[in-house]
Design goal:
By secondary structure, the protein is of the alpha+beta class. The chain has a single domain, classed as Aminopeptidase. It has 4 helices and 8 strands; from the N terminus they run E-E-H-H-E-E-E-H-E-H-E-E. Strand 4 and strand 5 (74-79) form a beta hairpin. It is globular and about 40 Å long.
């Protein structure tokens, strides 16, 4: 499924990790490792091989990404800085949610950085539990029931 609307030139689609690992990883490296100083060892894990990946691209260049793991976790959502605040993250999240529904996930969850909680709340997620730290960044767990 591809989505494109008049507000943005970005095409949002399911990505093939095996074929597009390098450009998807490049976005995550820029956002998480360079900007947010997440240790590289924490960014890459075994879930990339089995997750469903999503890409946002403009003129064929991948500028955003997200993934949905087999246990229903949405994560690794990243949009390159020049393309933020244009609705691209929302569109990536919407495709991840519709994919989870198509795959009959009863619910999805994520670990939201504290400042991103309002973004996820707009998409129907509810914060649960207290603050915890991943890569020295404060997060809260969030849940969305799908069915």
């Amino acid at each position: 499924m591809n989505t494109q609307d008049s507000d943005s030139k970005a095409v949002i689609r399911v990505a093939d990790w095996a074929q597009e690992k390098e450009p998807l990883s490049s976005v995550r490296r820029q956002v998480f490792i360079i900007e947010q100083q997440v240790p590289e060892a924490l960014e890459w894990d075994e879930f990339d091989k089995t997750a469903i990946h999503f890409a946002a691209s403009i003129d064929g260049k991948i500028i955003g990404t997200a993934r949905l793991t087999t246990d229903g976790q949405i994560g690794r959502m990243a949009v390159l800085k020049p393309y933020r605040n244009q609705g691209i993250g929302s569109r990536l999240l919407q495709l991840a949610l519709s994919t989870a529904q198509d795959e009959h996930y009863p619910e999805v969850y994520l670990h939201a950085q504290i400042e991103a909680i309002p973004f996820y709340e707009k998409h129907g997620f509810t914060a649960e539990g207290g603050v915890f730290y991943e890569a020295n960044i404060p997060h809260r767990g969030m849940l969305k029931i799908l069915c």
